[in-house]
Amino acid sequence: MLITKYLQWKLYFPSTKKQLMSFTQALETQIPAIQDYVTFLDTQETNIHNKHKEISEVITKQANLLHKLIDQQRQQLLDKLNAACQGEVRKLQAKCNDLKAAEISIQQNTNLLVFLQRFGTPQETILMYKPIAERLNQLRHMKPDRLSHRLMTQFTLRSSTEMNAQIMFGHLDISSVPFDQDDSQQPHLAASSVMPHILQTPQLMAMFDAKLDTDSVDAWPTGICVTQEGFVIVDRDNRKVKIFDKDGKLKRQFSGKGDHVLGSPFDVIVLPNNNIAVTDYKDEDVKIYDQLGNCVTAITGHCRHPRGITTNKNGQIIVVDCHLRQIMTFHQSSGELLSTIRAMDNSGGQLLTDPYYITVTDIGDLVVTDQATPNLKILNSKGEFLSQYGTYGTHQNQILQPYGVCIDSHGYIFVADHQNSRIHLLLPDGRFLKFLLTKQDKIWHPVAIDCDSNGHLVVAEALGKIKIFKYI
């Protein structure tokens, strides 16, 4: 038995020893790889510390710079105030000194006259009477140099909110990205200017009805564009473009002629050359008219169901197509297709489901309302996803039917929540700020919205009511 086990050990020992050696060699080959990765991790730790130090120094430098700028601004304002007040005080003191001198002269001449009356000889009285009388007569008819203007000083406070402080200071972006992705590939939202104060309750300034006696059905204003002269409105169900002045009085209306009659118009924008561009859902095109309603040209062959329309700072026409689920940019004069954006997410899926309205920021970011999702999406000019707002519901950060969207000159984003009968006010990065208007403000199923440069938001409601609110 012992001999048998001995023979088995002798037989298997070499192979077992060989296997152990191969395991040892394999493990030994792992050591350099582990050491290399430990070195890599140490390097990453060092990079984190260096980046932390670098950004900390930038933050501190920015804080010191803002402190310096604030101190400089404080001193400039104080110097300006001091100079104005001291100058006005000097003027007042000069007038006061003149009046005191006149008072002394009157008193002295009066005393001299009294003295002459009591103690003067006839000869002295006659001799002194004339010059004294002339002087007293001058003083008696003297009128003080009254002030025509008074100095008025007032300091207008800007909104010293935490939000504005964050905007001025800068944004710290912290995210996790793959090692093979360059930092420059990361999309960034635009920085905004200092935001003005929003009224707690916007003021209803005016209201008029887009429904006309000549309309065959109730008005359904799906598109609105505010101009310096007034309002250009698309009435989808009556298939008309209606132009109103600032007082809400109809200036003209048109439906197109011949081959350019409106089929099912949806949205409208006034181009830099003052022509009017209208998306036509039924005719699958964009029709461009002059102010009198004569068709200038039509952009055809590119759209299936064009809905929202806007322009960028270059005057190019931007259209969102809800059937093709893409955004197209056209030349404003020739109608040439310049670019097509099929917005995709990181997994290659389409970002847009049923896009309705679109607007553009000053730096070219695209803001699109998506009715089916339902939410609002912010993309950069290349169609890369930046941010989104909203989920289905009735509470804060929720929306039922996102329709019209617009952006004011400060970067505030306004969204018409059709089914919830309210207007959402968002920050430039798409974060919720407040419900600007709700049912309590007599808002009823808003469809299209636009704003002007004077802090007015124009809301086009279902069935044709147009309401103008002041919000700043």
Explain how this protein is built.
The chain has helices at residues 2-119, 122-140, 162-169; strands spanning 203-209, 221-226, 230-235, 240-245, 250-254, 265-270, 276-280, 285-289, 295-299, 306-311, 317-321, 326-330, 337-341, 355-360, 366-370, 375-379, 385-389, 391-392, 398-399, 402-407, 413-417, 422-426, 432-437, 446-451, 456-461, 465-470. It is α+β, with helices and mostly antiparallel strands. The strands form 7 sheets. The protein has a 4-stranded antiparallel sheet with strand order 1-26-25-24, with no helix packed on it. A 4-stranded antiparallel sheet has the order 2-3-4-5, with no helix packed on it. Strand 21 and strand 22 form a beta hairpin. Helix 1 packs antiparallel against helix 2. The mean pLDDT is 86.
CATH class of the largest domain: Mainly Beta
Number of helices: 3
Strand element count: 26
- Give the C-alpha Rg: 39 Å
Largest sheet: 4 strands, antiparallel
Q: Roughly what percent helix?
A: 25-40%
Name of the CATH architecture of the largest domain: 6 Propeller
Quote the distance from N terminus to C terminus. Answer: 102 Å
Short description:
By secondary structure, the protein is an alpha+beta fold. The chain has helices spanning 2-119, 122-140, 162-169; strands spanning 203-209, 221-226, 230-235, 240-245, 250-254, 265-270, 276-280, 285-289, 295-299, 306-311, 317-321, 326-330, 337-341, 355-360, 366-370, 375-379, 385-389, 391-392, 398-399, 402-407, 413-417, 422-426, 432-437, 446-451, 456-461, 465-470.
